[in-house]
Design goal:
The complex is a heterodimer of chains A (about 325) and B (about 280). Chain A has about 325 residues and is an all-alpha fold. Chain A has helices at about 1-30, 35-40, 45-55, 65-75, 90-125, 130-145, 150-165, 185-220, 220-230, 235-245, 245-250, 255-270, 275-285, 290-315, 320-325. Chain B is elongated and about 75 Å long. In chain B, about 50% of the residues are buried. The chains are: A mainly alpha (about 325), B mainly alpha (about 280). Chains A and B meet through helix 1, helix 6, helix 7, helix 8 and helix 12 of A and helix 5, helix 6, helix 11 and helix 13 of B.
Chain lengths: ~325, ~280
């Protein structure tokens, strides 16, 4: 219980830190962000857009920084992220609502498949350390984790989608398809390449982590005890070694998820996939600050919730956490 | 140390690193032209004069590829070293001092651990009016230290109560002497592994930022080459080597750092060592 409370505290604290970072970052820029934007668009912004910007930043020159901060806080907590500049007059929350499901599908799939495949492979490699499988799996996994995701995506796009025509070139669904049961095939074929490349670059990290974790568990006394008791190898491997070796993977979940989300920015960009990361990049490239802020906040919140889920799963899996109350 | 040099993965990693190091150092002698020379006919195909053809701006692609080694290697080593330092200071301070300092620092680490570093990196880069390798290195150092700090903190805690540290404390050695003379030297393996891990992250992040056009797009790096290759539709014009090779170089350099990270861990971590 203490463990979960601590995690909950960190969850709230991180959420607050992200909110505050969002508030401070544009203010660290030289000059007033609104003036900078006005200069950039050279009078092309309508008064409404300027008003939208002021709402987004909570920037009102007559207010003090502290009261701006609280205004911004209130707006954000009630889901008022302001209006997008590059997609004016669409609301930021509308863009997020329509793009978030695509990314959650893509990132969720890649995270789960990479975790399952990588952990299984790593467990076998660690269990048979020094075997031919181990000797191939390790350098191959290192290479996968050093693979620039945008590069492998571009290659896949060019060779598999453009030259061989096996997959659609861009988008999340065919233009003639609708979001219904009949469109599922189109959705899957559009998601295939982004999902495969994203899974591929993330699987290596799990293999290495699980392999090392298995190897160190094999040196533990309880594994030696299980063996000397004459238990079948399979029982020792699954019930003694793998069960304990998998625990560190849950603590690494936070970092891993960060990598998948970062990878999604590149895959969605290369494949023009209509997810939230694609819009984040469009917002960054067109300096659409309200959209940047809204998307960053939503990404952090979703990652936080996913981490909290992983922590809860960890509590179920490791009884020591429940009794000891320390992480 | 001997175990490290007899480790095949470590030697392959070191070999690749030395190779790129030589390419970076000897770039002016290897490259046939200046990488910023734009006086060639644009979009030339592969030929004897231009081993990999020319870009849409009229640069020699092969020369750019050679000079590109400099930026990636520089960012990898410098950002890796800075990140390893930050991790060391935060981790050891938090772990050894303990108490309230630890509680506060651990919370900061946990916050940074959960915020996706590269997303933050892209956003900060977007807010900056001027960007280049130095700014990329600074943002990397600010956003990418949390994981390593956590590993080092755990190490420092486990070392803190060992008999030899206890003995040093009893004999009246000062806090800094104990940390620098007993704790840090005993964590050397983890620090080295962290450094290579950070370098790998830095190389990939730098290339990624530049590919997105969030670096200095006029600089000669593998990331910017891929940016121009993608934006100039080089591949559609049949110049697929322009796309393939810079990425392959990033992959190889990253693999070198990754192999060294893995190998150092194998050698230095007693739980992974072979009996």
């Amino acid at each position: 219980m203490r463990f979960l409370l601590r995690r909950l505290l960190i969850l709230l604290l991180t959420g607050w830190a992200a909110l505050t970072l969002n508030f401070i970052l544009p203010r660290l820029m030289p000059g007033n962000p609104i003036e900078a934007m006005l200069a950039r668009y050279q009078g092309k912004l309508s008064p409404q857009a300027v008003g939208a910007l002021e709402i987004a930043f909570g920037l009102n020159t007559r207010q003090s920084a502290i009261s701006q901060y609280f205004t911004y806080f209130g707006h954000t907590l009630t889901g008022n992220f302001g209006t997008s500049i590059s997609y004016y007059p669409t609301k930021v929350s509308t863009i997020i609502a329509s793009s978030l499901p695509w990314t959650i599908g893509l990132v969720g799939f890649a995270t789960i498949i990479a975790f399952v495949v990588g952990t299984a492979l790593g467990a076998v490699a660690g269990w048979r350390r020094g075997s031919r499988l181990d000797k191939v799996a390790v350098p191959f996994s290192v290479m996968l984790s050093a693979m620039p995701v945008f590069w492998i995506s571009l290659l896949a796009l060019y060779f598999l989608a453009f030259r061989l025509n096996w997959f659609p070139i861009s988008g999340g669904i065919g233009t003639s398809q609708s979001m219904s049961i009949s469109g599922i095939g189109s959705i899957i074929s559009h998601a295939a390449l982004p999902a495969i490349t994203l899974t591929l670059v993330n699987v290596g990290g799990w293999v290495l982590l699980m392999r090392n974790s298995t190897v160190s568990v094999l040196g533990e006394d309880f594994v030696k005890f299980g063996r000397s008791k004459g238990l079948p190898e399979r029982v020792v491997a699954y019930h003694y070694a793998a069960r304990n070796a998998i625990l560190p993977n849950f603590t690494a979940f936070a970092m891993a998820l960060g990598f998948v989300v970062a990878g999604a920015i590149f895959t969605e960009y290369v494949f023009s996939y209509p997810g939230i990361a694609y819009y984040l990049l469009q917002a960054v490239l067109s300096l659409d600050y309200p959209l940047i802020q809204g998307i960053f906040l939503v990404i952090v919140v979703v990652v936080l919730l996913a981490n909290f889920l992983a922590d809860m799963l960890y509590v179920v899996l490791d009884p020591r956490i429940r009794t000891e109350g320390r992480s | 140390m001997r175990a490290f040099f007899s480790n095949r993965l470590a030697m392959v990693g070191l070999g690749i690193l030395v190779f790129f190091g030589l390419v970076a150092l000897l770039a002016p002698y290897i490259a046939p032209y200046s990488p910023t020379d734009i006086n060639f006919t644009p979009m030339l195909p592969v030929s004897a004069n231009h081993l990999l053809g020319t870009t849409s701006q009229g640069n020699d692609i092969f020369s750019q590829l050679i000079y590109g080694a400099r930026a990636s290697l520089f960012v990898g080593l410098v950002a890796g070293a800075i990140m390893a330092m930050v991790q060391l200071v935060m981790g050891v301070f938090s772990g050894y001092v303990g108490g309230w300092t630890d509680a506060v620092l651990s919370t900061i680490v946990n916050v940074f651990l959960v915020v996706p570093g590269l997303v933050l990196l892209i956003i900060i880069a977007a807010y900056l009016p001027q960007r280049g390798l130095t700014t990329i290195i600074v943002i990397l150092a600010v956003t990418g230290w949390a994981w390593g700090a956590r590993v080092l903190r755990a190490q420092a805690i486990s070392l803190r109560d060992r008999p030899f540290v206890e003995a040093a404390r009893m004999s009246g050695e000062g806090r800094w002497r104990i940390v620098l003379g007993h704790i840090v030297p005993n964590m050397f393996g983890v620090i080295a592994a962290n450094f290579f891990g950070a370098a790998l992250y830095a190389v990939l992040a730098e290339a990624g930022l530049e590919f997105l056009g969030l670096g200095n797009i006029n600089s000669v790096t593998w990331g910017t080459m891929l940016y121009w290759a993608e934006n100039g539709d080089a591949v559609l014009m049949g110049q697929w080597l322009y796309l393939l090779l810079p990425g392959l170089c990033i992959l190889l350099l990253g693999t070198a750092f990754g192999l060294l990270n893995f190998a150092v861990d194998q050698v230095a971590n007693p739980r992974l060592r072979r009996n």
